[in-house]
Structure formats: structure tokens, C-alpha cells
């Protein structure tokens, strides 16, 4: 087989410089592939390195790396626009990266020589940004993984299949039906709530690839294809700046604070752990995890953590989460440090959960008496709980 550079020389064209990869020379086949398809190899290498760093680096460094490469919707609305591109190179599950890398390699070996290196880089980045932007636009979430780019490569190959024998040989009817079937399967899994998948990223990636391929394959459709691509890109700008139909976008200020607490909690900030846990416990599905964060803050001596873990161990609607003995321990510790009416209210709830009714009534009476005037909005709740304890009934938060 004649090397591309020598073939160019024989036809009187300037040869491209031969790319060398010294690190890969120990693996001749890999080195040859890297020289022939440098962009495709680079994309795959970046995905693999990110996957290993995220999964093998323990605790905070891995979490921080993932957060940097795949920022949340709130982070993107706050200016982390690079996430629309970098999130395509992030994979957490082994099967996910295996699936995407396998298809990216096969399609890349077809499309990279067809477009040329520079245009292929633009194609990959454009597909990543557009597919991620439309997932954000339609679901207020950001996807991770190279699937949107893979479907863009599939769309491009499909659009140019008739005029490219190599495309046609690879993209047989069975392969087309398999990829389209997987697309439909993912949509069904999402609709049935069995498995959340970035379907908008897949669909828009496919459209981007088809439009790009048609612009080259059918010159008469070039203006129409350009108009379609422009519309998709303009919509991506909207997804980053203005989404009033999205409740998440409207609540982005509050969510920004929540994500800040989450990031700081995972990095070891004790007060952030208490605040993050205090929010999580309000969601039934996250309540147990919220109690764990509150307990972690309490163990570090944070008063919000001690009060919070004691309250939820005493009043959680789920019996499996309640623990009267531990609740009393944390509530008494907090009350000794800061004997406020609020701390007394928590201690009384814990004592009631432990069936120590006389003590619960006495502490709650003191809490009702000592409640400051500027917190009179809580007075009725305090009195209601006092009535319950007098009847030897326990307080429960709403499910």
C-alpha cells in the first residue's frame, strides 16, 4: 500500500508532513493508525484519558475534573460555555465509552479523509456543541459522551453514501437499521422512565451530519442546508442565554447556590456539607443521602449539621431513617452549645421519638416561651408540637 505522502508526490502535489508519534512506536499498528487518522485517534485518546482520570482518581480530584469538563446547566448559564464542547469527551461507565469509541473509530476512518483534518476537527466540535446545546434547550440538562458526535458522523456518512463506495460498503442496510433502531430504543427507554438518555443530542447530531453531508453531496441544497445548520446554532446560543420556558432556568440563582454547596461539600467544606444536606433531605429520594451529609457535618462539629441530623433522625416520615437514640445524642450536644428555642424544639422532637415524654414536654414548653418575637412565624408550629407531646404523639415531617 502506497503511503499518502508518497502518492501525493507521484501526482506532483506537495506532500503532507509525516506525523510521528514516538510514544506509540512500540505499538506499530496503533502508530500507523495515528499517522493515518490523527484527529480520530486524538478524539479517542482524549476520551480514554478523561475516563481513566475520572474513574481512577479517588474522591475530590475525580469529581472536580468531571465537574470542569461537564459543567451543569446552571454552570453553563453562568458562563461555562466550554462545557457544550468538552462534555462530549466525558464518559463514566465503561460500556458507554466502549460503544462510543468503537463507532467513532469506524466512522472517523471514513469521514476524516473525506473532509480533511482541519474541517474534520470543525465538524466534530460543531456536532458536539450543537447536540449538547439542543439537549440543554429541550431538557435543561447537559449530556455527557460522544454519542451526539457519533450520530453526526452516521448522518454525514448516510448523506454521502451513494457517491462514496467506501461509505456504502461500510454503511449497509443492516447497520443503518441497527443505529436507527438504537435511537428509537433510547427514546422509548426515556419515555418510560426506565433509563434517562440524551435523545435530543442523538437526534440533532444526526440532523447536523445529514445537513453537512447534503451541503457537499447536493450543491443545489447547499443554501437550504446552511440555513438549517444556522438555525440549529442560533438555537444553541438561546440555550445558553435565554430559556424562560424552563423552570430550572428561572430558578437558576437558587440552583447556582445549591451547586456551589455541592461542589464545596464534596471538596470537604463542613458548613457547605451541612447546607447541602439540608437541601437534599427535602427530597424523598435523596433524604437518606442528605442525612449522611448532615451527619458528616455534625461529626465535624458544625451546629447546623448537628441540629439538622437530629431533627431528621427524629421526624423523618420514613421509619427506616429514624433513630431516636442518635437523634437525642446530637440534639443534646447542640443544645448544650447553643440553648436556643430552635435547638430546644429539635431536642424535644428527639426526646419524643425516644419516648421520653416528660422531658420532651418540658423542653418544648421552654422553647415556646423563649421563642424570639422576630421568629413568631414559628410559634404556631411550636405550640402544635407541644400539644402532640402532651398527648404522647410524635411529630413527623411531610412525606
Written account of the structure:
The structure is a single chain. With 399 residues, the protein is mainly alpha-helical. The protein has helices at 4-10, 28-36, 38-56, 60-69, 73-77, 83-86, 94-115, 117-139, 147-159, 165-170, 173-191, 199-217, 222-241, 247-250, 252-266, 270-280, 287-299, 303-315, 324-337, 341-353, 357-370, 379-390. It folds into 2 domains: 37-249, Rhomboid-like (Rhomboid-like fold, Up-down Bundle), CATH 1.20.1540.10; 268-390, Tetratricopeptide repeat domain (Serine Threonine Protein Phosphatase 5, Tetratricopeptide repeat), CATH 1.25.40.10. 71% of the residues lie in helices and 0% in strands.
What is the topology?
Layout: H1 4-10, H2 28-36, H3 38-56, H4 60-69, H5 73-77, H6 83-86, H7 94-115, H8 117-139, H9 147-159, H10 165-170, H11 173-191, H12 199-217, H13 222-241, H14 247-250, H15 252-266, H16 270-280, H17 287-299, H18 303-315, H19 324-337, H20 341-353, H21 357-370, H22 379-390
Helix pairs in contact: 2-3, 3-4, 3-7, 7-8, 7-9, 8-9, 8-12, 8-13, 9-12, 12-13, 15-16, 16-17, 17-18, 18-19, 18-20, 19-20, 20-21, 21-22
Amino acid at each position: 500500500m502506497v503511503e499518502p505522502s508518497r502518492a501525493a508526490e507521484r501526482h506532483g502535489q506537495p506532500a503532507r508532513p509525516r506525523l510521528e508519534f514516538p510514544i506509540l512506536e512500540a505499538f506499530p499498528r496503533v502508530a500507523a493508525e495515528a499517522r493515518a487518522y490523527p484527529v480520530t485517534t486524538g478524539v479517542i485518546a482524549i476520551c480514554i484519558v478523561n475516563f481513566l482520570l475520572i474513574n481512577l482518581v479517588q474522591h475530590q480530584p475525580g469529581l472536580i475534573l468531571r465537574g470542569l469538563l461537564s459543567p451543569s446547566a446552571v454552570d453553563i448559564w453562568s458562563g461555562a460555555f466550554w462545557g457544550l464542547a468538552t462534555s462530549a469527551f466525558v464518559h463514566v461507565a465503561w460500556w458507554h465509552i466502549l460503544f462510543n469509541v468503537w463507532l467513532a473509530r469506524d466512522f472517523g476512518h471514513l469521514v476524516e479523509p473525506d473532509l480533511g483534518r482541519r474541517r474534520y476537527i470543525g465538524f466534530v466540535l460543531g456536532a458536539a456543541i450543537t447536540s449538547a446545546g439542543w439537549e440543554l434547550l429541550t431538557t435543561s440538562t447537559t449530556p455527557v459522551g460522544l454519542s451526539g458526535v457519533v450520530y453526526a458522523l452516521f448522518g454525514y456518512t448516510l448523506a454521502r453514501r451513494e457517491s462514496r463506495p467506501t461509505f456504502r460498503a461500510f454503511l449497509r442496510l443492516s447497520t443503518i437499521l441497527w443505529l436507527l433502531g438504537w435511537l428509537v430504543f433510547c427514546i422509548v427507554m426515556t419515555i418510560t422512565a426506565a433509563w434517562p438518555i440524551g435523545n435530543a443530542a442523538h437526534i440533532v447530531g444526526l440532523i447536523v451530519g445529514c445537513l453537512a453531508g447534503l451541503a457537499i453531496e447536493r450543491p443545489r441544497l447547499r443554501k437550504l442546508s446552511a440555513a438549517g445548520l444556522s438555525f440549529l446554532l442560533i438555537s444553541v446560543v438561546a440555550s445558553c442565554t435565554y430559556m424562560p420556558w424552563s423552570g430550572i432556568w428561572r430558578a437558576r440563582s437558587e440552583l447556582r447556590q445549591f451547586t456551589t454547596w455541592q461542589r464545596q461539600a464534596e471538596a470537604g467544606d463542613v458548613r457547605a456539607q451541612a447546607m447541602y444536606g439540608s437541601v437534599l433531605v427535602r427530597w424523598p429520594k435523596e433524604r437518606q443521602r442528605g442525612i449522611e451529609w448532615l451527619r458528616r457535618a455534625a461529626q465535624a462539629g458544625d451546629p447546623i449539621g448537628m441540629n439538622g441530623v437530629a431533627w431528621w433522625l427524629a421526624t423523618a416520615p420514613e421509619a427506616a431513617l429514624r433513630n431516636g437514640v442518635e437523634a437525642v445524642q446530637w440534639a443534646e450536644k447542640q443544645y448544650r452549645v447553643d440553648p436556643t428555642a430552635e435547638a430546644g424544639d429539635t431536642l424535644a422532637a428527639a426526646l419524643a421519638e425516644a419516648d421520653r415524654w416528660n422531658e420532651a414536654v418540658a423542653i418544648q414548653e421552654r422553647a415556646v416561651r423563649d421563642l424570639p418575637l422576630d421568629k413568631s412565624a414559628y410559634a404556631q408550629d411550636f405550640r402544635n408540637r407541644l400539644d402532640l407531646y402532651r398527648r404522647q404523639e410524635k411529630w413527623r415531617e411531610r412525606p
